[in-house]
Design a protein that fits this description.
InterPro entries: Ankyrin_rpt, Ankyrin_rpt-contain_sf. By secondary structure, this protein is mainly alpha-helical. The protein is built from 11 helices and 4 strands. It has 2 domains: 88 residues, Serine Threonine Protein Phosphatase 5, Tetratricopeptide repeat (Alpha Horseshoe); 84 residues, Serine Threonine Protein Phosphatase 5, Tetratricopeptide repeat (Alpha Horseshoe). Strands 1-2 form a two-stranded antiparallel sheet. The chain has a two-stranded antiparallel ribbon with strand order 3-4.
Length: 221
């Protein structure tokens, strides 16, 4: 990897011949579980020269944090593939950071550069950008991501927790109802008796049984 006179468009990245994947051993509810390989972004910018981090990662991180569309375009208009690169040490992409800033236009711009597969990328904890959205309970942002790829609602973290589960753990009532309805009431192929019971347990602990539909499901677990 090299730079020339600090210009970001002159950076040459080493080609990646296979997808980055790592395994993390985890347990959940005191039971050992086998985690799937993580679907990580490209790590070139983190593993390369320090200049790449300073001239690309730092400005893209700052732009993602505050939703500075013009600053991001200075780099991404020349290097749109950078939307699938990790830009911080936790292996998060611009999308991971931007969804927490509530900058909807900025996220929609990133969506225009990304494929359906790109938004399924996870950080080192196995958390997709959608998973983070579920955790904070931003339903409006969730709609933007689901419009691009509905499959993100079923991608677990490294401990096997569904986005619906983490929304329930954090007491995000509106998000829980949205994900519950969009998951066919936890009846799809991704749902098991175990992960369904985890969600219902979290709902009980966080007093989320105001929804009649969730209360009905409790009777069948």
């Amino acid at each position: 990897m090299s730079t020339s006179n600090g210009n970001t468009d002159s950076i040459e990245l080493n080609p990646i011949h296979q997808q980055h994947q790592i395994n993390i051993e985890s347990t959940s509810h005191n039971q050992a579980s086998q985690s799937s390989p993580l679907n990580l972004p490209r790590l070139d910018l983190l593993n390369g020269e320090r200049d790449d981090f300073n001239t690309i990662c730092v400005p893209l991180y700052n732009a993602s944090t505050i939703g500075d569309l013009e600053a991001a375009k200075v780099i991404l208009d020349k290097r749109r593939e950078l939307v699938r690169f990790s830009i911080i040490e936790s292996y998060e992409t611009m999308l991971h950071i931007a969804v927490l800033s509530k900058s909807y236009k900025f996220v929609e711009y990133l969506m225009s550069l990304m494929t359906e597969e790109d938004i399924k990328l996870s950080n080192r904890n196995g958390e997709t950008a959608f998973y983070l959205v579920a955790r904070v309970g931003n339903v409006k942002m969730a709609h933007i991501l689901v419009k691009k790829n509905r499959g993100v609602i079923n991608i677990t973290d490294s401990q096997g927790r569904m986005p619906l589960h983490v929304a329930a753990l954090f007491g995000r009532r509106t998000m829980v109802q949205y994900l519950y309805d969009d998951s066919d009431k936890m009846s799809g192929g991704f749902w098991t008796h175990q992960n369904r019971s985890w969600v219902l347990e979290a709902c009980v602990e966080n007093w989320l049984y105001g929804q009649e539909s969730l209360a009905q499901d409790r009777k069948h677990v």
